[in-house]
Amino acid sequence: MCFPALLGAVGGLFSGGGSGLATAASIAGTGLSAVGAIQSANAQAAGLRQQAALNERQAEIERERGAFEAQRERENAQRILARQRANFAASGVALEGTPTAVIEDTAAETALDIAAIRYGSALRAGNFRTQAAYDRANASSARTAGFINAGTNLFSGLARTRLRNPYAVG
Q1: pLDDT of res. 5
Q2: What is the CB neighbour count within 10 angstroms for residue 37?
Q3: What is the end-to-end Cα distance of the chain in Å, rounded?
Q4: Using CA atoms, how far apart are residues 109 and 3, in angstroms rounded to an integer?
Q5: What is the tally of structural domains in the chain?
Q6: 69-78, 94-103, 126-135, 159-168: which range is least confident on average?
Q7: Stretch 91-104: mean pLDDT, rounded?
Q8: How far apart are CA 26 and CA 170, in angstroms?
Q9: Domain assignment present for 68
Q10: 70 sits in which H/E element
Q11: What angle in degrees, to the nearest 10, is found between the helix axes of 3-13 and 19-90?
């Protein structure tokens, strides 16, 4: 709509007698309602984007925590294995047969524990990254919904105004 047509429409609001001011107020309220819908959607989208950033950071923390815990488990296992070897040697037992099987079993169990730590950490980090993706998608949807609600408010408000005063606009 070009500017002269807009001025003509606004001028027409006040030409219908006493109802012009009510019509103008109704249109202004409709406009404010539309702006409010957009502002609300933008605020919701900003909150969701912030939540997505927090979830991404939490995923990184989980990854780092898993690496730290796996390293601690590896170091603990090295101490246990060294202690086992030292105890067998101090007892005069040759590191063959059963003693070797015990040490190998301890090493295998430790490897499984480390793999479980890494898996759990990766799983938790993946859950946080997935939630972040959902948050970003919801932020985008919130903005879209805000514009749709604004358009709905504008069209329904103008339609109500037109029904009350058929000469108000157009």
Answers
A1: 46
A2: 20
A3: 11
A4: 79
A5: 1
A6: 159-168
A7: 86
A8: 16
A9: yes
A10: helix 19-90
A11: 120
